[in-house]
Amino acid sequence: MSPGPATQSFFQNVMKNFDKASRYTIHPKGLLEQIKVCNSVYRLQFPIQTSDGEYEVISAWRVEHSQHLMPTKGGIRYSADVNEDEVMALAALMTFKCAVMDVPFGGSKGAIKIDPKKYSVNQLQRITRRYASELAKKNFLGPGIDVAAPDYGSGEREMAWIADTYATLHSESADAIGCVTGKPVSLGGIRGRREATGRGVSFGIREACDCVEDMKALGLTPGLSGKRVVIQGLGNVGYHAAKYLQESGCLVVGMAEREGAIGNPAGLDLEDVMKYRIGTQSILNYPHATNLARTADVLEMDCDIIVPAALENVITAENAPRIKAKIIAEAANGPTTAEAEEILLSKNVLLIPDIYLNAGGLVVSYFEWLKNLQHIRMGRIAKRFTETSTIHLVEAMERLTGKTLSMTEKRQLAHGPDEEDLVNSGLEDTLIVAYHAIWEISKSKHVDLRAAALISAIDKIADAYAKLGIFP
Ligand code: NAD
To answer: Pairing mode, if any, of strands 40-49 and 55-64?
Structure first.
């Protein structure tokens, strides 16, 4: 994905935030330096044959930022605009994200420098398989080494190709498909992954809005009900975040997509806008909204919460002074530049940082990896047992009270958890626990939530390094 208007390197931006947070820790300078750097940067080029028989050289990367916990974990971006700096920044964010969320992985990221829309499915498959085999050859892919995942421009289809390529090269490994997450459910993927990031975004915003003290400081009422939200980007993350926020009582008053932005202070019906967009290929001129002059104007709308869910570097020193929202919920990776953040914090805006807020997909990917290593669908063993024992309990209560429930009522009470229930429960719990952990740090050290999340991450990573010692 092409960086937004800011000229500062994305990696520098991430490290500027790291430096700011590390001042609140007591770790040796050298150890902090070790945590900052990308441990391994693999830049590769390989040829593919084009449809007219010519050669085309494809550039790609895999960056393992930190190997303090193994395997490392990170998505693969397919984009013509990608560069090494961006992959390094995203790999570092993965390290911090894993640590904040207590997901026991180091961070990594990969990229293939192509516009996937310009290639046939057959060519994309050959590029993906060649990339996967190159990574496997150099030990940059594997269930215990480095676990790939989808990112911008890639999805379940590419992950299935990667799993199959790796499994073909490692036919002796029973865990081979654990080399990648975000696979189709029929190939070892997990239910609830597709919605996980957006769902996690809505949980994180809910936790923030439930804090009476913070809402009072912002001049807002606690809770999600009636909060006016603006969403930039209606892709996987933005759509699901909007869906769950709307279901929780928020009003989505503005939306932006590539083609433009629309607004309605009374609220927009997400599903209806999506249906309209499928019909017309655009959200513009949606009958129950007004078109905004420029797409980016959506960020400056009168609202309570902005959810940037498309690109990095979209909130900059240029537009930050005009932002009216009290809460910025970073669903995308790196949407706010460091300069913009300073301006917003001085305006008392609550910024819920990407390394916490959009980690829902990572959390559920961890569950998928566990499922692959365990070779069993979550809930498969306990579901019926839970249902039967709950029914026995209900029947015992019926005997004691002399009152009876219908079989339908009993079944509703006794619903045993299936895979999706467990995934959503684990996701919600992780988002709640992590929010309160970083909130406590933010209050005790008088820092913003991003600094607090980074302090939490730095402390955990430093502790791991200190206990690991240095080899040899
Ligand atoms: P996506 O491709 O599904 O959605 C992005 C959407 O943004 C697309 O619909 C695109 O048309 C739209 N868009 C592009 N330019 C825009 C513009 N200028 N204004 C408004 N909309 C624009 O991607 P995604 O998976 O939803 O990811 C979005 C962001 O969230 C990225 O920063 C990604 O790194 C981050 N993220 C994604 C996940 C995940 O699980 N998918 C997890 C963590 C972080």
So the answer is: antiparallel
Distances (CA, A) of 447 to 298, 452, 453: 28, 6, 10
Residues 6+ apart with CB under 8 A from 389: none
pLDDT digits (tens, 9 = 90+) for 436-465: 999 999 999 999 999 999 999 999 999 999
The Cα 128–Cα 112 span in angstroms is 9
* C-alpha–C-alpha distance, residues 158 and 75, integer Å: 11
Structure tokens at 419: 């895979």
Pocket of ligand 1 (CB under 6 A): 151-152, 197, 232-238, 256-258, 295, 309-311, 331-333, 358, 361
Kindly give the pairing relationship between strand 350-352 and strand 55-64.
unpaired
Q: Which atom of ligand 1 is nearest to the CA of 234?
A: 9
Gap between the Cα atoms of 440 and 130, Å rounded: 46
Task: Please return the burial class of 423, using the count of CB atoms within 10 Å of its CB with bins 0-12, 13-18 and 19+.
Answer: buried
- What's the pLDDT tens digit per position in 360-372? 999 999 999 999 9
Distance 198 CA to ligand 1 centre (A): 11
